[in-house]
Amino acid sequence: MVKEIERAGIPVVHMCTVTPISMTVGANRIVPTIAIPHPLGNPALSPEEEKKLRRHLVERALEALTTEVEDQTIFEVK
Amino acid sequence: MKTLELGYIHIKDIIIGSESKVENGVLYVDEAALKALVLEDENLKDVSFDVAKPGESVRITPVKDVIEPRAKVEGPGGIFPGMVNKVEAVGEGKTVVLKDMAVVTAGKIVGFQEGVIDMSGPGAEYTPFSKTLNLVMVCTPADHLLAQDPDATLPIENEKKPEYEQAVRMAGLKVAAYLGDLGKNVTPDETETFSTPNLKEGIEMYPDLPRVVYVAMLQTQGLLHDTYVYGVDAKRTLSTMLWPTEIMDGAIVSGNCVSACDKNPTYIHENNPVVHELFKQHGKTLNFVGVIITNENVYLADKQRSSDWAAKLCELLGVDGAIVTQEGFGNPDTDLIMNTKKIELKGVKTTIVTDEYAGQDGKSQSLADADPLADAVVTGGNANEVIILPKMDKVIGMLDYVDVIAGGHAGSLRPDGTIEAEIQVITSATNEMGFGKLSAR
Is A36 on the interface with B (CB under 8 A)? Predict the structure, then answer.
């Protein structure tokens, strides 16, 4: 899906936990996420903390989306 | 030198009655005693026992685990250490095995990845457990585990699934250990001895043979996808080593609901075919060094760490070759490729044993991940292959879940009683330790 949407000229950020698979399938902008069963959340956190985490991940993804890349790039989340 | 003798008692028939014993190859089971043993667990409301024999028109579903009864006769520890018996290192002395039979746990579904065993017909060709005499225990969860929705007939959508999974897992292991104990005073029909030299001895004994280690990947994704080693949930472990014979004494047990075709039931751990084949070649064409166990977790950092450690152990051992087996599919394919790549980069040749999800037409990519260094692969077959299973005269368990288990679909169970599904639904059809019957060239 990532590749097909990009083929149509729209840049894509692939947010995923297993970044090696994302690299293998050829995504260009990759943002690592939390875990396979809960990529954008973390049940160990309080709802407030979790919201902060979610926002942070999405902001990182938006940042990646607007960054020029030459090659497949993993945008580590701090 | 670590030596274990397995004594095989071939079981020709199972009779459910009022006495427990093994006599002249017949296993007699005291139903009331077994029931009392299982119902010690307050999370189980009921259990019923039935026997399924090879060639019968019988379907068992939904199947959770398959276990071979064993007992320690000599040597430290007990069978299934840390689970049924106390934690003590096993793998030496003598162990008795009730051969040609299995304990099969079934009952109301825990997770959606439970299986089907047909004792005859085309489905029987795909599962190794159509050839064993099966003592099937159909477990019923206690009411308090179903409290959320007493009318639910489909998956128990509440928070008690882990308790139910644990109850059924422990019930199966306890019954298998109980039956194994019946063999303790019986003279085995045959024995087989497995000896593993320590590193120093091995190098001295076989200076010219290539040294080979077996890397067993254990399914540990959590959420009902777990494996236990000496009672420890393996997702909380670092990659480590075992004597191969510890596995024969039940050091590794299954607690998971991965797709039926490629989960490793406890029976297959006990009879791990890679371990057995490596022993056959040990001292002849290779020197079998031991077993590295590593996990398949859901955090990338865990995958990185565990594969680093598996590769590091190969490096530390200075082996020439490694055989890597997997459990499950999808993201574990990344663990498989990470292990293989990192081990190869240590200068160790690898062969992987896996299976494929190549689509119903077999034309899709087989694994979710790949690398040029993974250039020696043995496949257990394509799990997406479609099969029609005929109606069976008798069902042990229940057909309620055929449409929802992995590999099934809405309408899998057809009005005439036949089942159309992917072979994914069949227990151990594409086993990734090579215990199944499928492969490809």
Answer: yes
Question: Which residues does chain B have within 8 Å of residue A19's beta carbon, measured at their own beta carbons?
Answer: 300
Q: Indicate whether B433 belongs to any domain.
A: no
In sequence order, what are the residues at sequence separation of 6 or more whose Cβ sits closer than 8 angstroms to the Cβ of residue A1? none
Does residue B140 have a pLDDT over 90? yes
Determine the average pLDDT of the residues in B316-322.
98
Range 38-77 of A in CB contact (< 8 A) with B: none
* Contact check, Cβ <8 Å, B298/A32: no
d(CA B21, CA B15): 10
Q: What are phi and psi of B207, to 5 degrees?
A: -65, -25
What range does the domain containing B48 cover? 2-425
Q: Which residue, among B65, B100, B391, has the nearest Cα to B260 in the 3D structure?
A: B65
Mean pLDDT of chain B: 94
Other C-beta atoms lying within 10 Å of the C-beta of residue B285: 10
Q: Can you give the pLDDT at residue B401?
A: 87
> CA-CA distance, A18 to B189, in Å (whole number)?
50
Q: What's phi and psi for B200, nearest 5 deg?
A: -65, -50
Query: Minimal CA–CA distance to B376: which of B159, B244, B260, B212?
Result: B212
Cα–Cα distance measured from residue B156 to residue B164, given in angstroms and rounded to the nearest whole number: 10
Q: Flag whether pLDDT at B92 surpasses 70.
A: yes
Q: Is the pLDDT of residue B112 over 80?
A: no
Determine, for residues A18 and B221 on separate chains, whether the beta-carbon distance falls below 8 Å.
no
Beta strands in B75-188 (DSSP E): 93-99, 101-107, 115-118, 133-141
* Cα distance between residue B288 and residue B295, in whole Å: 21
Residues in chain A: 78
Whether B156 is in a domain gets the answer: yes
Query: Would you say residue B366 lies in a domain?
Result: yes
For residue B306, being part of any structural domain is answered with yes
List of chain A residues whose C-beta atoms are within 8 Å of the C-beta of residue B301: none
Sign (positive/negative) of CA torsion A29, A60, A63, A48?
positive
- Phi-psi label, residue B353: left if phi above 0, alpha if psi -120 to 50, beta otherwise: beta
How many structural domains compose chain B? 1
Average of per-residue pLDDT across B273-287: 98
A15, two tokens: 């947010």
Subunit contact B300:A32, Cβ cutoff 8 A: yes
The answer on pLDDT for B60 being more than 80 is yes
Tell me which residues of chain B, numbers 267 to 306, contact chain A at a CB-CB cutoff of 8 Å: 298-300, 303
Q: Does B94 have pLDDT greater than 70? A: yes
Contacts of A37 in chain B (CB under 8 A): 221-223, 298
> With a threshold of 0.80, does the pTM exceed it?
yes
Span B173-202, average pLDDT = 98
Q: Is B250 helix (H, G, I), strand (E, B) or coil?
A: coil
Please name the member of B298, B370, B371 whose beta carbon is closest to the beta carbon of A37: B298
Report the distance separating Cα A49 and Cα B44, nearest Å: 38
